[in-house]
Design brief:
Length: about 280
Amino acid sequence: MNSFKRVTAILVCFMISPLAALCEPQGGAQRAGQIDALIPAATRNAQTVKAKDEIDWNDLLKTAHNGRVRAGLTDGSILSVGSDSELRVVQHDATSQQTSLELDYGKVRNQVTNITKSGGKYELKTPNAVIGVIGTDFVTLYKSNRTTVWCLKGHVRVTPLGKVAKSSGQQSSTDNTVTLAEGQMVVITSVIPSAGFQPTSTPPDEAQTILLSTDVPDGNLPPPGDNKYVNPTHAMRTLLVGGAIAVGLGVGLGLGAGHGSGGGVGVTQGCRPSSSVNCPTGP
């Protein structure tokens, strides 16, 4: 009788153990956000991606020459990845407000929710700099060993990474942290200028151009034609018109055209006017 009970208990354990495994998170993935909109070609971990797909920790977002991606993080922050870019979402914990991103190359706009918790941080790293914020809107470009940061709102701290060359020899990069205010920019290179890295004012036309270069209309758009999105001024306006038609906004555009030169003028999607940024208008 005891042997029968023992065998029965073993069989029950075997039957229950798979159920426990099913209750555990598969692969231990931690959600960071989701894809809100994109322009193909863009991938997530080298796989085709579409709007509403989830983003997990350590996911790699990559865009081709004609691709762009807009992603929403779980704390409400927004990432707008430009073309020819590669961004890794290393970590994003909305509860503890801990965010770590890595821009291997290309351009990304960060619209960051205010960090209010003690110890909270939001950092974006490039191969030669780290950008830290509390709550702001900024764009970062890394290309040819140069990190360019434009602050559109709030304040941004930019620190060169590693050692950077200077005429007097090697100097620690931590001595060269630059704080940008709204409407300022800085370019980090491998050589420290004699006066150190200094913020400069962003030209208004340059501010508009960088906003257009990371703008992504809602939904999924078909792959663009040859060089359709290369020019961030005229070509981007063409993109916005096409995107509006694709999502059923043709009626609004028709009304604007019907009024001729006296019709309403639409502000480019994704642009937030400020004292330093004049949002471009439609054609």
